[in-house]
Amino acid sequence: MRMSSPSTVAKTPLYETVASRIAQSITEGTFRPGDKIPSVRTLSRQFQVSLTTVLEAYTLLEDRGLIDARPQSGYYVRARFPVVTPEPGISAPQLSPTGVSTGELAMLVLRDTRNPDLVPLGAAIPNPALLPVERLNRMLATESRRHGIASVSYEIPPGCEKLRVQIAQRMLTAGCAVSPDRLVTTSGCVEAVVLSLRAICRPGDTVAVESPVYYNFLQAIDLLDLRALEIPSHPRHGMSLDALRYALDHNPIRACMVIANFNNPLGSLMPDEYKKELVELLVARDIPLIEDDIYGDLSFAPNRPRMAKAYDRSGMVLLCSSFSKTLAPGYRVGWVAPGRFQTEIERLKGITNIATSTPPQLAVAEFLANGGYDHHVRRIRRVYARQMVQMAEAVGRTFPAGTRVTRPEGGFVLWVECPPTVDSLLLYEQALRAGITIAPGPIFSATGKYRNCIRLNAAYWDERVENAISTLGQLAAAMS
Amino acid sequence: MRMSSPSTVAKTPLYETVASRIAQSITEGTFRPGDKIPSVRTLSRQFQVSLTTVLEAYTLLEDRGLIDARPQSGYYVRARFPVVTPEPGISAPQLSPTGVSTGELAMLVLRDTRNPDLVPLGAAIPNPALLPVERLNRMLATESRRHGIASVSYEIPPGCEKLRVQIAQRMLTAGCAVSPDRLVTTSGCVEAVVLSLRAICRPGDTVAVESPVYYNFLQAIDLLDLRALEIPSHPRHGMSLDALRYALDHNPIRACMVIANFNNPLGSLMPDEYKKELVELLVARDIPLIEDDIYGDLSFAPNRPRMAKAYDRSGMVLLCSSFSKTLAPGYRVGWVAPGRFQTEIERLKGITNIATSTPPQLAVAEFLANGGYDHHVRRIRRVYARQMVQMAEAVGRTFPAGTRVTRPEGGFVLWVECPPTVDSLLLYEQALRAGITIAPGPIFSATGKYRNCIRLNAAYWDERVENAISTLGQLAAAMS
């Protein structure tokens, strides 16, 4: 193939012509989101243009948000979302606090994961085929052997030092300079969140949450006899700060909880300036922020977003996270950077279960230090980026007209807003009978909202999943 | 050596003569508690008497409680306690409920374990030299490899099935026929206890506990905004049922907690008929019993005692335990048999931290199935039996007159009641300065009792520990 000669495209620079050819091949689906596009050298040979021209073309495509450069790796098509299916609008929960009772449903969705016969679109679990199982297990074995007696002994709070050092180093890439001494390891992120809530709140207190909200937040709030106040949230930018400000002015709010980066279930990514504003807004009122960053590393862009904790100068943000979405959910290794609540979190962790299991902490610490964590994460987020688009497209094709779907820039969950006549609780039951598990909308609300919404786990993509989406679409259509 | 000829001992049967010779060698310290005595065959040769005579002699010594037969192993001197130091009397806490605030001290005692320069007589941790570290770690490695993806996946409540099957089989030896489906694995025994309390109680409820009481019970009660009612307890038989009955008649008690077998800190072993009575007493009033059996397998007698749960016909006993005292505290693998609270416990476990870490559960399950758990436990309880006597004797030698010490028949903690002028909080501080950590009495009470008592961890015994006991004795004497 030879590029059109310079004469015929005299008015456009050659690199723009190259760029539009590539853009076209992306639009046509030759290269799909997450795919690697040809290297600069290959394209230069193919198009018979200079290396500089190709580089300029790629820079242009980067600027337009079509591709991403990945150091030492090349250029990749950025995850985009089909234009056919619009995004949901901002949520509109009622602005008065409510007791929580999501009941048995959330438990059922988690329980569905134990049934291998079900297509697992319900719980937000990572695709096991994308977890570094063998390397982790090797490290579990070698580290336990190497530490001998220490491997069977308590790692009492704040927990395994080597792991805390690795986490502290890694938090720098998210904009947080936190000393390893200011971290506490936990049995997963959920435990970190529950401990944080408990450190801050007393029974009866009100907690501001996003809406829709991760159902474990609601269950934790319920567990501690607290009340949830659902704040409207935008599918792109997360919790509405205007709505939060209004709520703060009208309600005695004791704490605020957010998943700022690649929210579960909305997929929203709160812009950095909003994160800063959120922290300032709360600190000015002496209200702690519990931030869950469990999806932060799964950014489809080359660099992961900052944490809200990065804007915390007064120790009022309790940053919670874990390796359950990237390495091993079953290891139950998470952590909290509790700011000024350090002592109380250590105390509560000790009372709750004394310590986090030692061998998994040693294995994860070693994986972070010498296991190629960055490489691993780059690999899996490429897959999730592609699958998220594939699933969103499939929803667009098969769900009834009027359906909306989110366009997350990270993580692996999609939020689908069906036409108002669709009953997601009924859909959940019908889907189960068809061998598919989904997360129905009402479990993401303390007030029974989102009856016409579902959350889909996009961590899996194959023919079986594609057929499942098609089945779901038909079931939903039958209700429209 | 030849036994005295039959003629000179004409009036006593020959086997009695043999028995008294052995008894004497035990009294003189030739054979010490936990030691193996010569086999029947050896002694028959040595004393030139028939095998039958030796067998009869050993049966007599068994009946007198001096030795124990261990199948496939031989005869061992039973753990006894020095007569020089009397046992403490029954405790006498006040019979009105109180808010709990054991404060920072309990945390400090646990924290002391991280300092290898301190002689570890404080926290009730097992001797790491007696843990099967290498075998466990080998099983951790092989089981994780064997289970592949399952080893990094959630074991959501009720938890790892293979482990539950093994635990259910083992509970039979403690008199409990519980189906594996009626067990929930937890991150250690403390978590099992906290989940149990939460499943039963609401803030403000009163819980009846032993006195002195394991301080984690008090902290759990505090955590959940409950109130503790301390019931007088006997150093041999545990919680006084008369006192409990009185308390039940005069207080609205919502739950009762006991460590019936080898209590921490008292070392008491509640007789089976008392266990039965305890369960009946509570069931008649519809009050659940939370039983902690973490020391149950560490019985110095050949057969472990039954659990109170063995007398539970109505699902009102929540049996909590773990492998932290026998296999690996750092693995954080425990369980609860929650009776009629099964569903609620599963739900609470899920909200607290979703699941217990998978690889340690797999390793422990394999150890129970094929690792020689019984043999291992027989070995370590022999050591603990001997050390407990050695430490009690050392206390008797070095502590001021008027000191009392318990005589547990299992476990590895000793409770020392010093003369009233001894201040254990001061002793704790002075001991720390001397490089020794102990558990001061007041952390075992919600009402600041036991100021003149300390708990000693007898899991270690060597010259350093012996010297530490001597130092403690001198420090206590200086306060008398």
Describe what you observe in this structure.
The structure is a homodimer of 480-residue chains. The first copy, chain A, has 480 residues and is α/β, with parallel strands linked by helices. In chain A, the strands form three sheets. Chain A has an eight-stranded mixed sheet, with helices on both faces. A five-stranded mixed sheet of chain A has the order 3-14-15-13-12, sandwiched between helices. Chain A has a two-stranded antiparallel sheet with strand order 1-2. Mean pLDDT of chain A is 91; it is low at 1-10. The longest helix of chain A has 26 residues, at 373-398. In chain A, 41% of the residues lie in helices and 14% in strands. Chain A has helices at 14-27, 40-47, 51-63, 105-112, 133-147, 149-152, 161-171, 189-200, 215-223, 241-250, 272-284, 342-353, 358-370, 373-398, 424-433, 463-479; strands at residues 67-70, 74-77, 119-121, 184-186, 206-211, 227-234, 238-239, 253-258, 289-292, 317-322, 334-337, 404-405, 413-417, 436-440, 453-457. Chain A folds into three domains: 6-77, Arc Repressor Mutant, subunit A; 105-128 and 375-479, Aspartate Aminotransferase, domain 1; 130-373, Aspartate Aminotransferase, domain 2 (3-Layer(aba) Sandwich), CATH 3.40.640.10. In chain A, helix 1 (14-27) packs across helix 3 (51-63). The N and C termini of chain A lie far apart (50 Å). The first copy, chain A, is globular. Chains A and B meet through helix 4, helix 5, helix 6, helix 8 and helix 9 of A and helix 4, helix 5, helix 6, helix 8 and helix 9 of B. Chains A, B: Residues 12-80 form the HTH gntR-type domain. Chains A, B: It comes from Geotalea uraniireducens. Chains A, B: Keywords: DNA-binding, Pyridoxal phosphate, Transcription, Transcription regulation. Chains A, B: Pfam families: Aminotran_1_2 (PF00155), GntR (PF00392). Chains A, B: This is GntR family transcriptional regulator.
